[in-house]
Structure to design on (812 residues):
């Protein structure tokens, strides 16, 4: 069972050029841990890269100096929390969806907010899914794993 | 002469030698015309020609010894040839070759005579050449052979004949003289022939021009006729319009007259500077003047003493050009000597070259009755004013008191406004609070839940029975807390949510929700009854929450009963739709009914009946937002009835 922690640690220190499948933008360590645990419980082994705030997320996707898109970092799906330090989730979403290099990456909002204003704004900006984090753990695990499975395996993405 | 001929040829477009027209069309037309006019003439001439030839046979008989060959020439050759040509003239195509045919006949006749001269002895050989001249003259003058063919015949026959005359016997002075005269006659005849054809052609050309002119004139005539017709039509229309206008004018005049009659008003005109007054008979009627007066010099005596000064002033203004219009009320004296209030409106209609008024036109209306009433009213008003002044003084007093009151009120309203602003800011704070509650409170909860689950899944075997129980309790409580937070959030969101009104079938809604709730608890025996309910204009989603809460409460509090009974009834009282949900459950003590709709207020312990005390406060909030009321009646152990009312709302 310790392997889970090791696994998370490993993925936090991931090499910048390594292939990433899932980008998780989450400032809460517990949530990030539970997210990865949910995937591993359901035997989903894709590489997850976790960043702690909106600025880190943008820096991961785009080169800090040149502003070029890091092609190697292009994730297959982005899970994005709304309430984040520095840049919040909606701002990150806007940047991703307005940039022609990244607007084809599916973005799933993963939040505790079920405010109408948040939901409306997220869909206006072109979010692909909006998920309110379930409190019940079984339901949470089920939902996260199914959604990941859907975006990584079932959904046909754009050929690049 | 030659120059003149050339000129004529030029102007007439004639070839001076062949006499052809230079325009082939005219030449063709001329030839056809020439043929048709000459045909009858030609036949008669040919007939005479035959007769002449036959008669000259008598001469042969007298002067020629051997006359038989002569007769042979005459009757076997020449006369048949002429006869043939004569007969040919009755064929259809004769016009194509008639000139050639005639020329041939002339040539044959001429050669016949030349042959006779050749055979003849004296004196015929010295005289018969006159016959040839005769033939040529015939050709030039009578049988319409054209000049050019005649010249050809002449050129062939005359020299041949002269040679024959000199060859036939020894030349002598007589022969020479004959030849000389013969030649001269033939030449003269030739010139004459030239002019005959020249004049015929000239005459034809004139006719041709005349024809063209006539065609032109006909064309002009036709145009002229059309123009005349058009003009006639236009004029007819104008006449119609004119008569219509006249009729309309008459109508309008009648109308005007009646209008003036009906309003007891008159129309007039006034000439300056002599002040000659011209008016219609209506004016007479108005002032009871004698009927026939239509012109009269205006006299200021007709105006009442009190109004005269103003009246003269008005007129003077007009005459000085200071004003163009008159709008004036005054008294006029009628024929009976009574004073009559009238109102005159007028406007200067004509000015002279210096801009001075010449004529003013206007109307005068009898306003006697109105004016008298007005004066009476004025009197009343004056009286009224006095009493009002008295009243005003006393009112002033009360008003001053009112002003103080209003000042007080303003202060109060200012206070109220500041309270309102405070309330608004508190509301906003509350909003942001509930937003952060949703996130901040839920995140640790999820962590508690998540790690508890992880603990349970991964370390279940290591935990003792107590440990497992504790984990379960942690999970249960965390889940409850999650529900509580969600309820609370729902409650706070309700205040901010926009109402979304639509047609809502209350009966269907109640039944549907009950079916959904009942589906969860198939083991319960519940009698559910709905009276007929109306379709309302309301927010269906909000009402759904109300009904879910009320029905699940009813189901919850009847759970101790073997047979639960829930009845939905409806009344319409005082413009309010009133719905009632009655159950036969545990009920409650009405002493606590004031706590019923407060947040987190419970009348039963959570051990007895689960719940957090949020449901009814939510219900109350929704009903209040619909501007309705909610209340309850109950008795412990006897069941409870919840009533809610919705005001009548028209779809707008």
């Amino acid at each position: 069972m310790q392997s889970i922690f090791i696994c998370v640690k490993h993925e936090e220190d991931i090499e910048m050029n390594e292939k990433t499948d899932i980008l998780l933008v989450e400032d809460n360590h517990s949530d990030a841990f539970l997210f990865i645990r949910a995937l591993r419980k359901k035997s989903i082994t894709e590489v997850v890269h976790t960043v702690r705030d909106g600025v880190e997320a943008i820096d991961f996707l785009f080169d800090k100096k040149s502003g070029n898109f890091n092609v190697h970092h292009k994730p297959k799906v982005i899970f994005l929390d709304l309430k984040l330090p520095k840049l919040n989730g909606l701002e990150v979403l806007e940047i991703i969806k307005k940039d022609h290099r990244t607007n084809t990456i599916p973005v799933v909002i993963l939040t505790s907010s079920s405010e109408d204003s948040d939901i409306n704004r997220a869909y206006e900006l072109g979010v692909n899914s909006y998920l309110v984090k379930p409190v019940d753990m079984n339901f949470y695990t089920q939902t996260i794993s199914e959604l990941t499975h859907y975006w990584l395996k079932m959904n046909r993405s754009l050929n690049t | 002469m030659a120059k003149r001929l050339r000129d004529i040829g030029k102007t007439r477009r004639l070839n001076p030698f062949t006499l052809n027209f230079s325009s082939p069309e005219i030449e063709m037309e001329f030839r056809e015309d020439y043929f048709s006019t000459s045909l009858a003439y030609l036949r008669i001439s040919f007939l005479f020609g035959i007769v002449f030839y036959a008669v000259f046979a008598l001469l042969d008989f007298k002067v020629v010894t051997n006359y038989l060959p002569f007769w042979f020439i005459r009757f076997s050759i020449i006369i048949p040839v002429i006869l043939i040509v004569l007969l040919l003239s009755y064929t259809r195509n004769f016009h194509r070759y008639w000139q050639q045919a005639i020329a041939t006949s002339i040539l044959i006749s001429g050669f016949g005579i030349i042959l006779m001269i050749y055979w003849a002895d004296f004196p015929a050989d010295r005289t018969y050449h006159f016959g040839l001249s005769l033939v040529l003259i015939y050709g030039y003058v009578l049988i319409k052979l054209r000049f050019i063919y005649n010249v050809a015949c002449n050129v062939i026959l005359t020299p041949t004949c002269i040679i024959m005359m000199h060859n036939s016997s020894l030349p002598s002075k007589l022969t020479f003289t004959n030849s000389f005269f013969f030649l001269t006659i033939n030449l003269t005849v030739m010139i004459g022939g030239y002019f005959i054809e020249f004049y015929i052609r000239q005459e034809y050309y004139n006719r041709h021009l005349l024809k063209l002119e006539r065609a032109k004139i006909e064309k002009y005539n036709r145009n002229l006729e059309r123009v005349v017709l058009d003009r006639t039509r236009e004029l007819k229309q104008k006449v119609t319009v004119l008569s219509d206008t006249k009729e309309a004018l008459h109508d309008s005049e009648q109308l005007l007259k009646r209008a003036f009659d009906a309003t007891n008003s008159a129309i007039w005109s006034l000439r300056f500077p002599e002040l000659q007054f011209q008016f219609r008979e209506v004016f007479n009627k108005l002032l009871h003047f004698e009927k026939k007066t239509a012109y009269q010099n205006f006299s200021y005596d007709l105006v009442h003493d009190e109004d005269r000064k103003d009246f003269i002033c008005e007129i003077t203004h007009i005459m000085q050009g200071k004003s163009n219009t008159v709008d004036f009320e005054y008294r006029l004296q009628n024929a009976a000597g009574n004073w009559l209030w009238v109102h005159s409106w007028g406007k200067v209609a004509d000015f002279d070259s210096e801009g001075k008024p010449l004529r003013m036109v206007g109307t005068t209306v009898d306003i006697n009755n109105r004016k008298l009433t007005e004066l009476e009213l004025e009197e009343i008003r004056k009286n009224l004013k006095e009493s009002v002044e008295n009243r005003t003084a006393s009112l002033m007093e009360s008003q001053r008191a009112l002003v103080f009151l209003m000042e007080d009120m303003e202060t109060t309203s200012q206070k109220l406004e500041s309270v309102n602003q405070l309330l608004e800011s508190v509301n906003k704070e509350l909003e942001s609070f509930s937003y952060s509650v949703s996130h901040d409170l839920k995140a640790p909860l999820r962590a508690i839940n998540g790690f508890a689950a992880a603990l349970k899944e991964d370390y279940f075997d290591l935990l003792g029975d107590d440990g497992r129980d504790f984990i379960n309790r942690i999970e249960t409580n965390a889940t409850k807390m999650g529900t509580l937070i969600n309820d609370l959030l729902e409650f706070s969101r309700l205040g901010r949510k926009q109402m979304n009104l639509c047609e809502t079938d209350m009966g269907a809604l109640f039944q549907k929700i009950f079916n959904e709730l009942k589906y969860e608890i198939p083991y319960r025996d519940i009698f559910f009854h709905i009276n007929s309910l109306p379709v309302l204009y309301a927010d269906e989603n909000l009402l759904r929450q109300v009904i879910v809460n009320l029905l699940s409460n009813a189901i919850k509090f009847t759970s101790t009963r073997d047979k639960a009974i829930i009845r939905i009834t409806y009344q319409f009282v005082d413009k309010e739709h009133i719905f009632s949900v009655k159950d036969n459950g545990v009920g409650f003590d009405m002493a606590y009914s004031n706590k019923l709709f407060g947040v987190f207020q419970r009348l039963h312990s959570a051990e007895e009946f689960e719940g957090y005390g949020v449901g009814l406060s939510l219900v109350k909030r929704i009903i209040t937002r619909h501007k309705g009321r909610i209340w309850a009646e109950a008795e412990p152990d006897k069941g409870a009835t919840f009533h809610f009312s919705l005001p009548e709302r028209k779809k707008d």
